Design the sequence.
């Protein structure tokens, strides 16, 4: 049977049954903007920014949730599509404290609004997501400024009581990506949509602060949020993309080996995110991997080996410490045989190190006394 195909912007593309218009476009490097679409979750069609024009269809359709069909003729940037996206963006910009450059427009009340946003933020800095916001990117792309519609007041105060995460409802566009990330990607089921209409809100549990809910502070929702509505508490107003350098690394906490981006400013890590296309985590991190980097800068951190002398420890070089360990192993084995020593490898080591350690004990020391702390 001949493969089904469709036309996008005048070119014909084959597709597999079940693919959406968005998937066919992305496969063929045709950009359709999205806000609510989260790759690993079921599409909701909530934001309407991905609308496209389909010949024969009365209204514009959401590319993220509309299946491709044989013979379909799609236009992704027609005047009607662009006008619809501009309208959607104008409404979203009017929906809260969008006090970055695109939020300003030519409003006479800009300074009053700015002061209100600053009061709500608890500081005079501009939005913590400035430069890393999909809404802002799209507003620039489609040349939309705030101010076309009167701003709606913000109904819910910013939630700052949680450790690690700040929830700023004034910049929430109700796209639902956080809800999907929590429920479908991490399967923590801590947040959902609550209330209706203008009162709609992403709620944790029965609308309690995150810290009183089932939230495990994995931060997946922050990574999914396209605006400044969810931000890392430690990085809020500190992390700025124009000051930032990213370094890819492997999480030091366990043997899963999650891939991380370290966001570094002035030589210090200011936040950590998951590498979206990196295996094995595909962008996910747990609370330790995402937030547990403060130990690096602790004054109490051990940076050199310590050798016990009586009741005290003294600092030593790595050569001295390793020689002492090797000599002590040799002495014990010479005096009491190889089964007098045992090793427990650390779950925070990488798998390869644990493998090397069992080789050392079995192949060199000639004992099977080797175990791994994860078994405890
Ligand atoms: S959330 Fe995005 S659009 Fe809104 S103020 Fe912040 S950067 Fe601007
Ligand atoms: S931090 Fe994790 S568990 Fe908590 S709401 Fe976000 S995604 Fe859900
Ligand atoms: S908090 Fe962010 S991800 Fe969640 S609904 Fe609001 S804008 Fe979307
Ligand atoms: S991205 Fe398709 S409706 Fe939001």
Sequence:
């Amino acid at each position: 049977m001949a493969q089904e195909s469709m036309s996008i912007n005048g070119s014909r593309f084959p597709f597999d049954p079940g693919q959406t218009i968005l998937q066919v476009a992305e496969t063929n490097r045709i950009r359709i903007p999205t806000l609510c679409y989260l790759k690993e979750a079921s599409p909701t069609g909530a934001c309407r920014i991905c609308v496209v024009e389909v010949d024969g269809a009365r209204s514009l359709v959401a590319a993220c949730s509309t299946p491709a069909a044989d013979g379909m003729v799609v236009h992704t940037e027609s005047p009607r599509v662009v006008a619809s996206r501009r309208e959607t963006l104008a409404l979203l910009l009017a929906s809260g404290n969008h006090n970055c450059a695109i939020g300003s427009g030519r409003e006479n009340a800009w300074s009053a609004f700015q002061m209100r946003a600053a009061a709500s933020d608890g500081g005079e800095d501009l939005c913590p997501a400035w430069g890393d916001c999909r809404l802002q990117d799209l507003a620039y792309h489609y040349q939309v400024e705030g101010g076309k519609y009167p701003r709606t007041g913000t109904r819910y105060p910013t939630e700052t009581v949680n450790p690690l995460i700040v929830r700023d409802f004034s910049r929430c566009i109700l796209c639902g990506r956080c809800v999907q990330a929590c429920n479908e990607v991490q399967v923590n089921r801590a947040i959902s949509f609550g209330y209706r209409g203008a009162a709609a809100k992403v709620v944790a549990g029965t609308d309690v602060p995150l810290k009183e809910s089932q939230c495990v502070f994995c931060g997946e929702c922050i990574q999914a949020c396209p605006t400044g509505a969810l931000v890392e508490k430690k990085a809020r107003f500190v992390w700025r993309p124009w000051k930032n350098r990213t370094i890819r690394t492997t999480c030091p906490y366990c043997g899963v080996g999650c891939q991380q981006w370290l966001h570094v400013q002035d030589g210090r890590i200011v936040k950590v995110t998951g590498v979206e296309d990196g295996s094995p985590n595909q962008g996910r991190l747990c609370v330790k991997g995402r937030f547990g980097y403060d130990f690096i800068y602790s004054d109490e951190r051990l940076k050199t080996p310590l050798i016990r002398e009586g009741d005290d420890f003294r600092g030593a070089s790595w050569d001295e410490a390793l020689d002492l360990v090797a000599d002590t192993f040799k002495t014990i084995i010479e005096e009491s045989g190889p089964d007098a020593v045992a090793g427990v490898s650390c779950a925070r080591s990488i798998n390869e190190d644990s493998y090397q350690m069992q080789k050392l004990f079995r192949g060199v020391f000639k004992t099977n006394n080797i175990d791994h702390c994860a078994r405890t």
Q: What stands out?
A: The radius of gyration is 27 Å. Residues 156 and 169 are 6 Å apart (CA to CA). The chain has a mean pLDDT of 94.
